[in-house]
Amino acid sequence: MALQNIGAGNSDDAFYRYKMPKMITKIEGRGNGIKTNIVNMVDIAKALARPASYTTKYFGCELGAQSKFDEKTGTSHVNGAHDTPKLAGLLENFIKKYVQCYGCGNPETEIVITKSQMIQLKCAACGFVSDVDMRDKLTTFIVKNPPEPKKGSKDKKALRRAEKERLKEGEAADEEQKKLKKEVKKKVSSSSKDGTTKSKKKSNGSDEDCGSPPHGKIQEESRVEEEDDDVQWQTDASVEAARQRIQEQLSAASADMVMLSIDKTEKKAKEDSKANGRSENGGSMPYKSLVEEVKSDLQRGMSAKELQHHLATLTASSQEKMSALFEALVAGVEKGFAKELVKKRSYLAAASAGEEGSQMLLLHAIEDLCCKSNSNALKEVALVLKALYDADVLEEGHIVQWYQKGLKGDSKDSKIWKNAQPFIEWLQNAESESEEE
Known about the structure:
Elements: E1 3-5, E2 19-21, E3 25-28, E4 35-38, H1 41-48, H2 52-63, E5 67-70, E6 75-79, H3 84-98, E7 109-113, E8 119-123, E9 129-131, H4 138-144, H5 153-201, H6 207-210, H7 215-229, H8 239-249, H9 252-275, H10 287-299, H11 304-313, H12 318-329, H13 337-343, H14 345-352, H15 358-371, H16 375-379, H17 381-390, H18 396-408, H19 415-436
Antiparallel strand pairs: 1-2, 3-4, 4-6, 5-6, 7-8, 8-9
Helix pairs in contact: 2-3, 8-9, 10-12, 11-14, 12-15, 13-17, 17-19, 18-19
Pfam family, one: eIF-5_eIF-2B
Keywords: GTP-binding, Initiation factor, Nucleotide-binding, Protein biosynthesis
Domain W2: 280-437
């Protein structure tokens, strides 16, 4: 069966994943009883997630002819002889009005009829709610014949609730286990202290004292040794720790002399860093100058590979480089961040395809820009994530992991998580539906 992209605007996109069958028509009868049979209307309606009766009725309304869809046989007829290109053009108008999201253009929408008998399209990808023009003739038919609710939606919600409760119970059990371990450690340490004091009090070396310890005490000691093995010892290399060690080891006079030399070296290092125009955090470039340098590279028409190679030579952290690249790409953009990033996705693809964890750096860069009082970027965060996901720049697992960490982190009260929630829910629903299939 020949397939085509849903929506005329996506016809040239070879990687577009939303597809539908090409329309097949057949003219039946003669004279006044001539009819056009849309042979694969059921398959087309299934790809659009709309009832076949809606598309058939729309053809009749637009052509001013009688139309009928038979639920039992699955046949769709429109009175009169109509060629395939004409009906395909009407189907594109139907997709624009009743299938595609008015915000992001995604065809994964759901028809919602409000209490005031108004028709809306709720997008499962970006969460945008589109208001359908009620002056169209088909709207009265839709209101009288509302779409059936999706099967299994209640079961999915129940499963999600049960999964959340199971996770909460698991976390509570882990906390209780940690408390028990701490109590055992305290008891073992107190018992070992009591044993040492008793052994000191006994002065005579009798055979009872030289005998082997009881079996229970051996088990406790072995358990303490096993718990101590898990502890990782490391030396604090900070300046304050060095000062403390110097003061403990040297005399008062020599310690003062050493501390004076350390202060001089620190002062000299700060002066050198200021003279070179660099910040104090490890000799790296200031973030503002890093952004300006990336902007100038983009204005000179530097390619994605050349820019990535140039960024590697700069002295800054990986997160600062990624944040500077992302901020430079959307500089001067007030609306339509997602479209701008799709145009420049080659730069982000080259930056996120490098070292491990680079996709998380890109997600944190998006988070940093949205938290910098950029209200427009904050509003479009779901569209940005959707665009980068469709362009294969970001993977589903990294997006979900970043979202879950953000809800538990210091910025859990930020609006970015609320705005990104519709896209995350759409990702999880799409994954669960593919697993069921």
